[in-house]
Design goal:
This protein is of the alpha/beta class. The protein contains 12 helices and 16 strands. α4 links the parallel β5 and β6.
């Protein structure tokens, strides 16, 4: 029997929109009016490499008579009984309603595993509602936008944790790779090789796998499609994805190149580790920094690879200088692995693979809440937040909302008044205290006297 997921929630929170996205077809009727869905609808869904059955249900309403609404609710309750897991959806823009709390209790009593999805989370208002849904007590919310496809990676992680480990098909495309949720050695580590045109990406992939799998040459822009190759190294499975060179947006006017860039960006989005290739003779150009920043903003673990190292004259001290420049130009991933290599001479290839594996360690690290609370107390005692307008800002509580990348939520009295410099201090201290060097860190501030009030601001 396939794994079955039931989407439930009150009317008009976007259940059918998500259903259509997961089945890949516009099967369920979608409208702004609540109550369009009445019967439960089943379909075959796919998310990355996960295949499962999905049930779209009518919006839950508080009724007890024999009315149409009561029969619709009975259908939904039957779907909860039949499924393996429940995706409980709330509207992040409206915020929690009394009905959400009632139906959260219904789902909790079912005893089924629950994924809490905060739909319509795009923008600041949506994110505020997403963090408000912590108050339902159903675990960490998955912020997403069913209409725009945002947050699908996070939904994949939550769903993969509840399902059996998927079997990979050798013919899968990059959009079918997804991300690991369990560090299973039998599951390939997806690695996107990105960079400017002619940075040596295809040559690097060929050197790693030991065959001329990719077209290479002195001309820039040979690679157009994102090509994935499955490969074993050191007893671990990898899926290497060679991508088209990324030029500045203003220079892209060819339709084919636009499609190639979109393919490369999708490869970054679905990768676990992104290797940013830079020409060692001309490193840290503006476009190099943009590409590395893009990978960090997508929340991927980043490794900087300086290619064509064999062409660099006077190498003495050059590697150490690259390390210093990387931390200077890319403070958002300070301490990320830096590897000088040459695909022509095979220099540095083994070290690159070692650093790729090592980069995933802080990226998927989880820190216990009690440890974070002690760290917050010690950090603020050592260097208290500054007083703003004569009023001291109090830091009260902190927890880790998710991993991949590490995402933290801190609760304080006035998040809007906390200076950016103090936020950077907290992130840098957090990075040093828990050995999170080189990985993107997302840090959210929330105004509250308890863990379930309104959201303030965030830094990443």
């Amino acid at each position: 029997m396939p794994f079955t997921l039931a989407i439930v929630g009150r009317p008009n929170v976007g259940k059918s929109t998500l259903f259509n996205r997961l089945v890949g077809k516009r099967i369920a009727l979608v409208d702004d009016r609540p109550g369009v869905t009445r019967d439960r609808r089943e379909g075959d869904a796919r998310l990355g490499d996960l295949e499962f059955s999905i049930i779209d249900t009518a919006g839950l309403e508080e009724v007890k008579d024999a009315s149409l609404e009561a029969r619709m609710r009975a259908q939904t309750e039957e779907a909860i009984r039949l499924c393996d897991a429940v995706l409980f959806m709330v509207d992040a823009r409206v915020g929690l309603t009394p009905a959400d709390h009632v139906f959260a209790d219904l789902v909790r009593r079912s005893g089924k595993p629950v994924i809490l999805a905060a739909n319509k989370s795009e923008g600041k208002v949506g994110m505020a509602g997403a963090y408000e849904s912590f108050g339902l007590g159903l675990g960490d919310p998955v912020p997403l936008s069913a209409e725009h496809g945002e947050g699908i990676n996070e939904l994949y992680e939550a769903l993969a944790a509840l399902m059996p480990v998927p079997v990979y098909d050798d013919e899968e495309e990059i959009e079918d790779t997804g991300e690991d949720i369990v560090d299973d050695p039998n599951k390939p580590i997806s690695v996107a090789i990105v960079g400017r045109p002619n940075a040596g990406k295809s040559t690097l992939v060929n050197a790693l796998i030991g065959e001329e799998r990719m077209l290479t040459g002195p001309e820039a822009g040979i690679t157009r499609d994102a090509i994935s190759v499955d490969w074993d190294w050191g007893g671990r499975k990898f899926r290497l994805v060679d991508t088209a060179g990324l030029r500045k947006r203003a220079r892209i006017d060819d339709k084919v190149e636009k499609l190639s860039v979109a393919d490369a960006l999708r490869a970054i989005r679905f990768a676990q580790v992104v290797v940013v290739c830079m020409d060692a003779e001309k490193p840290f150009e503006d476009q190099d920094l943009r590409i590395a920043d893009l990978a960090a903003k997508e929340g991927r673990a980043v490794v900087l690879a300086f290619t064509k190292w064999d062409l660099v004259p006077h190498k003495g001290g050059k590697a150490a200088k690259l390390r210093e420049e990387a931390d200077h130009w890319l403070p958002q991933i300070k301490g990320c692995p830096v590897v000088a290599l040459s695909a022509q001479t095979d220099q540095g290839l083994d070290r690159l693979m070692t650093e790729i594996i090592a980069a995933r360690v802080p990226w998927q690290k989880r820190i216990p809440t009690n440890t974070l609370v002690r760290w917050l107390q010690e950090t603020t005692d050592h260097h208290p937040p500054p007083a703003v307008s004569g009023r001291r800002i109090k830091m009260r509580y902190m927890t880790q909302a998710k991993t991949r990348p590490p995402t933290f939520v801190a609760f304080c009295s006035r998040p809007e008044a906390l200076p950016e410099s103090y936020l950077r201090y907290m992130v840098n201290t957090l990075r040093e205290s828990f050995d999170l060097q080189g990985t993107p860190i997302r840090f959210h501030l929330k105004k509250t006297d308890n863990p379930y009030a309104e959201t303030g601001r965030k830094i990443q």
